[in-house]
Amino acid sequence: MTQMMKCVIKEKPEPGALVFTERPIPTYGANDILVKVKAAAVCGTDVHIMDWNEWSQKRLNPPSIIGHEFAGEVIAVGDNVTTIKIGDLVSAETHIVCNSCVLCHNGNEHVCPNTKTIGVARDGCFSEYISIPAENAVVYDPSTPVEIVSIMEPFGVAVHAAMEFPVAGKVVMVNGCGPIGVMAVAVAKKCGAAKVFAVEINKQRGELALKMGADEVLNPMEVDVIKAIKEKTAYGAEVVIEFTGNTRAIKTAIECMAPEGKMAAAGLPDGSVDFDFSEFVYSGKVIKGIAGRLMYKTWEDAKGLLAGGLDLSPIITHTLPLEEFQEGLRLMKSGECCKAILIP
């Protein structure tokens, strides 16, 4: 008799259509591992899948299990697996790459055009068990709280963005302080930023940014951000870390950059961003896109930051049983939480 597990599936290609149900425990191949999920974190991507936006429609093929941020215990390994053992506490790099294209061969796996994403192109982690390639598993000290390990994937985006350019001794502006932005604030301060401005309209998230190390929060609904940044600095922000994905906010952030300023851009706008390109060129500014995590340098950087004392516990504001996934999605969509954790 096939053993079953509880899980959350996107049942149909339409808004909503998320169902808490049972499915067979997944099988695993010779190069895979089977993980018992201990904690899964709700992400904005899961909200997009729930709403069935254009991004989701292009990538998901329901019915499938959603969710991609998790921590779990390895309970079985494939015959060819030698680097992971039963009992290991793991998280996972969610981008499964081909390892055979030119980009992968040149060490740029994070932008592999053949990437398959856990919880999007294949079954995810809002379940009691998940099967993943062993090469995507990242092992953590067993004393690390599973809730913290479950947010290592989004933390990796924050680490990648905040460490893309040197921030030590610099004036840094973090544009958008959702969960990843708030974590980027903490990383920038841990890496020696002289001053961190957090730009955020949600007062609860602004307060959390201060708790995580921001020197000042600027609310665009209350102040002229460009004017404030220019008045409070010599020439503007030397490093901007962009997470809003809002075209107007991105344009504002570009104007906040100092000459020779750098922007690490991780937010995804729905439309194009128009700005004065001549001024951008003349002032020597740089914008660098941030795609996921460097594989696997970012994961090692993240481990180092945790070992160095960076505390992510304030990021986790809600913990719910898996069957209350709808409440977790609601909290994320409304902005009432930072990170909500689901426990199978």
Automatic annotation (TrEMBL):
InterPro entries: ADH-like_C, ADH-like_N, ADH_Zn_CS, ER, GroES-like_sf, NAD(P)-bd_dom_sf, Zn_alcohol_dh. The keyword Cell division does not apply. Its EC number is 1.1.1.103. Keywords: Metal-binding, Oxidoreductase, Zinc. SUPFAM superfamilies: GroES-like (SSF50129), NAD(P)-binding Rossmann-fold domains (SSF51735). GO terms for molecular function: L-threonine 3-dehydrogenase activity; zinc ion binding. Gene3D superfamilies: Medium-chain alcohol dehydrogenases, catalytic domain (3.90.180.10), NAD(P)-binding Rossmann-like Domain (3.40.50.720). This is L-threonine 3-dehydrogenase. It comes from Anaerotignum neopropionicum. The lineage of its organism: Bacteria, Bacillati, Bacillota, Clostridia, Lachnospirales.
